[in-house]
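Incident log, support desk, overnight shift.

02:14 A customer reports that sequence design results differ from what the structure should imply. Their input is reproduced verbatim below. On-call engineer (initials T.W.) acknowledged and began investigating.
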């Protein structure tokens, strides 16, 4: 591999991260609308969201197997296209049953694409011998911000269905155009004779912390707009601003994360980031006005931004002969939190209230800070 091909691959793999961010950001203003369209309570709606979690968790271990068989480049191409189509399912679903089915398919696309593109990013890191994952996750966060703003605007101007088709078509074109510049499939194809990606002793501790980190992210994605809409009685497009600024904070943190990891190391960075996450989230939940809540969640985003990328990097390095399997093992646990955390918040909100339920994410951030030493493997090249 030449330096020029590595540089092209680095920017090519950035596009799938951007595409996933755009679609998840565009999904955010649909969440309160879907809850209202289905006319169900927070507990039932949280259970319906669990379909997305189930699809992702089922797909992630299988993605590790398929990466070993076909390579992460092929898997990234295929799963990215799947997500662009799968996004339409829960967005357009008119009934609870169709929402669950659509959410299951969308979740499978998210889970398999996430493992595939992170595995390809690890291959680029190893070939380049420098960290790139935080920057790529920063592009994902930037995509979430743009998707939330653009998605909210398009919903206000054109309505939900047209917004969904426009965003899906735009992302599919971007993804297909960039995917031809990825590294060859042989770069991480068939590295291990052992394929299945359930967590091992080496990855289970890191995976449990990743569960907590992505539980925080997933809970804000699915419930922040609803919290803003119910607590401050704002429009759906305005409610999405809380998520957008949260993702903006994450993007800013991630664009500096590779440099910080090189300078101070993964453990101090994760410890400080977890504390900032806890303080920012608590301030946002206690804020008396929408403006102060948006500002506080921006700082929470700055905190949470670099935690998951460092854990993904550690997972890839804990199993050097099969990085795709190692990443899949960590992300299987991690994205269980990302996608099952929101239903948990919904169940707790059913017996308390949404504002109180989201304090579970504050507790999760403090636990991450206590066990930050588990990410030490991320500094190994």
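02:41 Re-run completed on a clean worker. Output:
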């Amino acid at each position: 591999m030449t330096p020029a091909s590595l540089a092209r691959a680095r920017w090519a793999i950035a596009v799938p991260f951007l595409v996933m961010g755009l679609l998840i950001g565009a999904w955010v203003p649909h969440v309160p609308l879907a809850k209202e369209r289905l006319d169900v309570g927070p507990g039932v709606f949280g259970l319906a969201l669990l379909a997305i979690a189930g699809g992702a968790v089922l797909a992630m271990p299988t993605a590790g197997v398929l990466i070993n068989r076909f390579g992460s480049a092929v898997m990234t191409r295929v799963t990215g296209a799947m997500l662009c189509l799968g996004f339409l399912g829960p967005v357009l679903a008119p009934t609870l049953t169709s929402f669950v089915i659509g959410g299951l398919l969308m979740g499978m696309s998210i889970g398999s694409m996430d493992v595939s593109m992170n595995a390809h990013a690890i291959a680029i890191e190893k070939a380049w011998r420098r960290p790139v994952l935080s920057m790529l996750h920063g592009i994902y966060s930037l995509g979430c911000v743009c998707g939330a703003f653009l998605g909210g605007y398009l919903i206000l101007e054109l309505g939900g269905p047209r917004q969904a088709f426009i965003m899906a078509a735009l992302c599919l074109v971007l993804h297909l155009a960039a995917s031809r510049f990825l590294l060859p499939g042989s770069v991480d194809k068939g590295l291990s004779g052992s394929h299945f990606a359930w967590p091992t002793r080496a990855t289970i501790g890191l995976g449990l912390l990743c569960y907590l980190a992505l539980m925080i992210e997933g809970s804000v994605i699915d419930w922040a707009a609803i919290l803003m809409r119910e607590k401050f009685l704002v429009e759906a497009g305005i409610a999405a601003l809380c998520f957008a600024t949260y993702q903006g904070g994450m993007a800013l943190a991630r664009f500096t994360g590779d440099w910080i990891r090189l300078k101070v190391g993964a453990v101090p960075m994760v410890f400080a980031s977890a504390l900032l996450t806890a303080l920012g989230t608590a301030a946002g939940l206690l804020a008396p006005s929408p403006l102060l809540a948006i500002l506080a969640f921006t700082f929470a985003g700055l905190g949470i931004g670099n935690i998951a990328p460092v854990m993904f990097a550690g997972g890839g390095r804990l199993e050097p002969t099969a990085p795709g399997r190692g990443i899949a093992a960590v992300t299987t646990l991690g994205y269980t939190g990302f996608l099952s955390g929101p239903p948990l918040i919904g169940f707790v909100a059913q017996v308390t209230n949404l504002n109180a339920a989201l304090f579970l994410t504050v507790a999760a951030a403090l636990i991450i800070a206590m066990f930050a030493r588990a990410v030490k493997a991320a500094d190994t090249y």
